[in-house]
Design brief:
Blueprint lengths: L7 E2 L2 H10 L7 H5 L6 E4 L8 E4 L17 E8 L5 E10 L2 E9 L18
Antiparallel strand pairs: 1-2, 2-3, 3-6, 4-5, 5-6
Length: about 120
């Protein structure tokens, strides 16, 4: 059931996608990964792609330490077709040490991506 202003719990697809994007123990990845249970989502695009706005309330989970000038992209992977061909990118953005957006960019002429997204992520 949607929460305030359309925010809802993460779908299984988005949760698993975030877990894959944030796999590993380097840098602040474990801190961002610990935010997943507290995250909520809202559709981030109207084109049919699986992009989602993400929201973690300050104080619900620890924020990652962010150096001045750091990229807002904290994790990314390529997105592949069922045949294994490169079709785009999945990128996780953060602001102020909290995850804020899962952006999925793909070649528009291929049409909407068939879920589940997490099964379409390529290697690092």
């Amino acid at each position: 059931m949607p929460g305030p202003a359309g925010w809802q719990p993460l779908s299984e697809d988005v949760r698993r996608t975030l877990e894959i994007l944030l796999a590993g123990e380097t840098g602040e990845l474990p801190v961002y990964r610990a935010q997943i249970p507290y995250a909520r989502m809202k559709a981030g695009c109207t084109c049919g792609c699986p992009s989602q706005y993400l929201r973690v309330e300050p104080g619900e989970a620890a924020a990652a330490r962010v150096e001045a000038g750091a990229s807002p992209v904290v994790a990314s992977r390529c997105v592949e077709s069922p045949e294994g061909a490169y079709v785009g990118e999945a990128m996780l953005f953060a602001d102020g040490g909290l995850i804020v957006s899962l952006e999925v960019c793909h070649w528009e002429d291929l049409g909407p991506l068939v879920p589940p997204l997490w099964q379409r992520l390529g290697p690092v």
